[in-house]
Every structure is written in C-alpha cells, then in structure tokens.
Task: structure prediction
Amino acid sequence: MKHTLRQVFHSPRFVVGFAIFAFIVLLVIVYPIFVRSAPLGIIGQGTFFPPGIYVNAYDSIGSEPYTLKLDNAAAKRLASRLSDEQRLAMMEWLVAAGLSENEIDPADTEKLLEQWENNYDPTINIPGQTNARRNYFVRLNASLGGILATEAAIIAEMNAETNTLEETGSVDQTDYVNINDVPNKRLLPLGTDNFGRDVLTELVSAIGTSLLIGLVAGLIATTIGLTLGLIAGYIGGFADDIVMFFTNMFTVIPTFVLLILISYGIGQEQRGAVTIAVVIGFTSWVWTTRAVRAQVISLRNRDHVNLSKLSGHSTTRIILLSILPYIASYVVMAFILQISSAILAEAGLSILGLGPKTTEVPTLGLMMNWAMIYQAQVLGYWWAYLPVIITIALISFSLNLMNTGLDQVFNPALRE
Amino acid sequence: MKGYFRYFGGKVVWIIITFIFAFLLNFMLPRMMPGDPVAVITQRVTTGMQSQSGIQAVYEEYQELFGTNKPLLTQFFLYAKNLLHGDFGTSFSQYPRPVGDILASSIWWTVMLQLPAIIVGWLIGNVLGVLAAYLRGGYDKIAMPASVFVSGLPAFGMAIILLVIFAVELNWFPTSGGYDVARIPDFSWAFIWSVFIHYQLPFWSIVLVVTGGQAIGMRSMAIYELNSDYVKYSRFMGIKDRRIILYVFRNAMLPQITGLALAIGTIVGGALVAEIIFSYPGLGTTILSAIRSQDYPLISATTLIITLMVLITTFTIEVLYGFIDPRIKAAQSD
Result:
C-alpha cells in the first residue's frame, strides 16, 4: 500500500492533477472562514456590477481630505469622462472641417481636445449636416466646457426650515481620501451577478455543492457498478445474462435523456442538490459495470482464485481477498471519472433549467444557467460566466489528469 | 454471407428490443414520479381563475385530452397507436401546432450539425492521438495535456468561449440562430451563405471537444500497438516508419470505432446543450423551450426522437464495424 502510494505520487501527471484539485478543495474550506457573508445574500441593487473595490461615496465626502498635487490627474479625469461615442463624434466633425484623418487619434485625449479647441466653430456650416446633428455638436462643445472646469464641487444640505440649499463644504479637484479612513468599502473581486450577489462568494459555495454532487453521484454509481460487475463477472450464468441485458440497454439509451425525463418528473419543488446527485448516480453506473465485469472474468480462473475456492473459502471472502485487490486501482480510477462526469452532468441539466432549486444552494450549473438567461456572454459581463467555466474545466482537468497518472502507474504498457 | 446476415439480424433484434425498452421508459418515467402532471398544468393555465367548478372543468378536459383518466395500460396502447400514425400530440406552448411539425423543422438542424461535427472531430482526434503516441517528446507533452484540458471542458463551455472570442469580440460570426432571420429561407446564395456563417461556431465547438476526448483514447491505443510484436517485427524487416504508422493506425482504429458507438449518447447530450448557447434552431433549443414552458408532449417526443437518433447511429456504426473488423469476418466464415 505504502509502496503503491509512493509510486502514485511519483507520477508527475497525478501530482499536478492532485495539486490543482487539493487547491480547489482547500479554497472551498478556507474561504468561508475569512468571508462570512451568506453565499446567496443579495447585496447589489442592480445587475452585473463589474469587479473592483467599492468605496462608499457618502463616507468619502465625510472623511478628512488630503491635498495631493499630481501632474496627470486632470488629464486622467478628462479621459475617463469623455465617452468613446463623443470622441468619435469629435473626430467626425474635425474630419468634416478639413483636418486629415491621420492627424487625429481619438485615444489621445489631450491632443484631441487641443485640436477641438483650435478648430471648432459653431458658425461653420458643414455641407450635408442636419440641423439636429449641428445642435448635437453645440451641446457637446458646451459639455466639454463643463468637463474642463477647475472649480471645486459644492456640497450642500437642505435646510428644513427655509427650504433652501446651504453650502456645508466643497470638494476640490486635488482632494484625496485615504481609503483606510473610509469605514465602508467592499471588495468584489468578481463583481456581482444578475441578482446582485457577490460572484466570488457564490462561486466558492457553488464549487462545494458541485463537488458534493460529484462525490455522492460518483459513490452511488461506483457502488452499483461494482456490485453488478462482481455479480455478473464472478457468478456468471443467468445473473450475468440479466445484468448484461440491462447494461447493454442503458449503454445505448442516452443518459442525458434519462436525466431529463427523471428530473422533469421530480418537479422543480422537490429537486435539491442531493436529489440531483442521486439521479445522476443512478443513471451512470453502466461503464463501471462493464469494465468491472470484464476484469473479474479475466481474474475468475486465475490460480490464486481457484486455490482459494479449493480451500473452501466463502464467495464473499474470495471476492474480498482475491478479486477486489486486483481491481481496486481500476475502481478508484472509474470513481474519479464518475465525479468529473457527474459535475458536468449537473451543469448540463441546470442549463436546461432542470438543475437543483435555485433558491437553496448555488451550484456551478445554476450560476451558468442564470448568466445565460441574462445573456451575460453577449453583453460582455465576463465575470458572471468565465470564472464558472474555468472552474468546471479545472476540476475536470485535474481529475482527468489524476486519472491518466494512475493509469500510467497501474498500466505498465503506458509508461514512458 | 449467411454469417453476415446472422450478425446483422442479431443487431437488428437487439436494437428493436432496446428501442421498445427506451419507449417504455419514456412513457413510464414521468408517470411514475410523485405528483399529478395534469394538476400542475391545470394550475398553470387557471391562475387567476376564481370559479372552482371552472378549474375542475379545465382539469377534466385536460385529463380527457391526455387520457390520464383511463387505466395505465389503455393509455400506453393509445400512446403507441398514435405514435405509429406519426401523431405526437399537440404542443401546449405553441398551441395548436402539432408536436410532429415542430420536431420536423428542428431535427434536420441537429442532424446536419452534429453528425459532421462528430465525424470530423473523431477523425482529427484519432490522427492527433496516433501522432502523439508515435512522435512522443515535445509534441506529446503539449498535445496530451491540451487534449485532457479540452475534453474536460463541457461542450457548452467551449461554445461560450468561441462565442465570446469570435462573435462578440472579433465580430467575425453571428452570436445566435441558424440563419439570418431577416431573410426568407430559400435556395439563394445569400441565404446559403448566412446558414454557412451561422454554422461555423456551433460546429467547431463540438469538433474541438470530441477531438480532445478521441485523441486521449487513441494515444493509449496506439501506444499499446506500438509495443506489439508485429511492430517490432516490421521494424526488423526494415519497413518504413510511415507504413508501420499506417498499420498501427488501422489496428488502433477498431477499438476506437466501438468506443465511438458507445460514447455517442454522451457526445450528443453535450452537443445539444452547446446548441442552446447559440440558440441554434435544433432539438437542443427545442427541448429547452419545451422545459421552460412546461410543454410536456414536446419534451416527451423530443427525448424519444433523440433516443431513436442515437440508437440508429449506434446501429449504423456497428453494421459498419462488421464490415471492417476482420475478426467478425473470420468468425462468420466458420
């Protein structure tokens, strides 16, 4: 046993796969210790807030200002306030007014503004321009003036008695706030989802649920597969015929179809994560059965098994001591693959809207499902779906890698 | 020749038995589940309805429509009889369109998408697998983990990645649909071109995932073959490596064909979900909308059609296998 383990951990593929998988499991265990908020708690009012640090604006005004003289602050402010649409419109006007297109770079804010100030004249009539469009440029020019203003922004409060605004303070363009002084801030490394939930917290919890689904489904499928395989392979005869009849049948009938029919039949209300796991487990034992049976048949007539039979050992004992140790490595490998395919099956089902109930637990498939319903992929909210896909891929990659590593150890023909 | 007929006859009988069993499951599974589906449908239709007798009348009419008030056995024969006449019932969500009509318009999209994609992916995967086993070294070190990674990715994941890169960011291909909806389907070049453009992303996302899975299997198979006696013997004989590779390819191919026959159900299941990502007008999208609108007759008919498609494909592969595998030929000449 010890020797086998050492051998297994010498396989580079297994070690890499194991490391990735262990990291994911550790993340699921450690993360909730540091971030204690509920994974399904709705914190954002609105959909798909981008990733970043959210600093309370009200608190920022209240905290002590520091004056910093930074050179490019004004340029950066301008650059962030000028939208792409406005830049292109400015470029369009300038080109129409006679500047060559090569001279203008809409990404270079400073140069663009300078060219605009030098050239723009509302009285110039550009041929073919509608009145509405000309007014648009007049408004654009006025708003540029607002952006370029250097006065302080005034903070005012409503006086309840006189019903007038009274100035209570001002914020200069050179005022800064130390982020440590602001009491309310929240780091959202992966933003929020369509419900306004913290994606990272949800994702970690979803990984946990999905791994649980994989584990339960894998255990069920492997247990059924192992039992049926042993019965068919060792007892043989009529038992073998019956088992193989059903196994052959369920190999050809697509598992996916069975999953849809059963999950739909159970109904939305009764579908929990464990229920789904059980359903997946009960529909994916076929491969293990086939393989275990094949292995047992080749073992059945080996000398050590016959010797055991001659010694009058019971069938249970023969199976436990003379057969199981020889197929153990295979069963472990099949179990690993079952986990990974169960996680994928849950994701597929959830995308179809047949996954676990949404309100109870997050799963990787459910996160995917909601991101798809809200068209996150088309609208560019990458944080809602990309981390989920990467996680699914990493889990299944690490498990497959462990599997090929084990294969190399136990299958001398594949060794390099 | 008699032997071949026995082989095919056995396969035909087997496929018919499996289909009857699948048909039974399709009929029984939803009916075995707790809860009354007709009650659920009635509840959905009658939301906001006040009169209790009105709800009762709707419930009874639906019972009559689906025949759920009759004994199970009668229901089964009624269902089977209707199916034999090509009558899949009427869709709830697209009432009064018959289910058969909806399926007829979506099934060809799925067949034309998945069949070529699976074949192309399988071929590319096998070639890459043999090369990885033969060349080893750096190529294997890159191709192998890449294949493991790609095959671990679900087809819908691959679909989303391709969609975001090539349709949303680069804008080379459309994001959804099977053809340009602004056009009326006809046989003009413009329409064929729009179908072709819409075809690319769903096609390649299935191809890539299938390629990865097949490459891993083929690599192991080819390594076994490369260590076998006939390869060593051929090397001693001084036969060129290119010829040996061909032998290896042919021999390792056989188990890969059986592998494809056994894996086709899983591949189709994954590819159906990939269709959904692109709103491709095939069976995957049909079943999604059927599930969302709780359209029971449509779900049942779609799952049955998918099962039938997979069964026919498996059968075809097994028949082809009978022609290719010399061992079956040998067994039958006895």
In short: Chain A touches chain B through 47 residues (CB under 8 Å). Chain A has two domains: 2-42+194-414, 83-143. The first strand of chain A starts at residue 52 and ends at 55. The mean pLDDT of chain A is 84.
